[in-house]
Amino acid sequence: MMAYVAKPVADIADMPRGGPDASWLDRMLQTDRPEYLDRDDVDDKVKRGVIRALDVMGSLFKEHERNAALVLAEVADVPDPRILELGAGHGALSRIVLDQHPTATVTISDINPESVAAMSASDLGEHPRATVRTLDATAIDAPDDSFDLAVFALSFHHLPPDLAARVFAEGTRVAAELLIIDLPRPPSPLHLVKLATFAPFALCWPFAHDGLISSLRAYSRSALQALGDHAGVDVEVSSGQFDRQTVVVRRRG
């Protein structure tokens, strides 16, 4: 992984998703429009449909397995790791971690009570090494150093910069390390191509609608470094243009 240095930010809430050094085009390729999953005026059936689509697509393209491999790599030297998943949604990531690590204990959480209820009613709710909870990633109800690793997969882009910085601070308060797995923010020309591909489907398919907005809200490397500087934590970023972006966040000192 590599560390990146960003320009200072006077007001983190106003930082572009492309970071303090974002070009004018990059600044145009963002939105404050919420996804269906973030809206109170959207029927829960639509939200559950988006979550099911995320689960199906994650299984089809082996995203869950690859994300679990990243989690397990971060705790490879910890005998009995205590893991916290934030924004779990459907719980597929934690399910694989529990299957592949015989002594890991996992707290599986989401801010959405419907998602938490669905996970509690599944096999995760009865797993002896799993706990399912309603938690806010920006204000985690847990003591300091409760976990060896906190992971936030494919949900970080939902948060505006001020709340995203709070996740950095909270995640590294309750865990020795915070791992964020999310969408990368491509260079503007490639981003335009990606958006043009999604756009025709966004009007009729809720999953594509949310995917389009997710891309517009994804954070760049320099933005993530600026968030880390604001939160007072160290940030290491690794990403591809169209694959996942991984961020390892640790306390300074």
UniProtKB/TrEMBL annotation:
<dbReference type="GO" id="GO:0008168">
    <property type="term" value="F:methyltransferase activity"/>
</dbReference>
<dbReference type="GO" id="GO:0032259">
    <property type="term" value="P:methylation"/>
</dbReference>
<dbReference type="InterPro" id="IPR041698">
    <property type="entry name" value="Methyltransf_25"/>
</dbReference>
<protein>
    <submittedName>
        <fullName>Methyltransferase type 11</fullName>
    </submittedName>
</protein>
<keyword id="KW-0808">Transferase</keyword>
<feature type="domain" description="Methyltransferase">
    <location>
        <begin position="83"/>
        <end position="174"/>
    </location>
</feature>
<keyword id="KW-0489">Methyltransferase</keyword>
<dbReference type="Pfam" id="PF13649">
    <property type="entry name" value="Methyltransf_25"/>
</dbReference>
<dbReference type="InterPro" id="IPR029063">
    <property type="entry name" value="SAM-dependent_MTases_sf"/>
</dbReference>
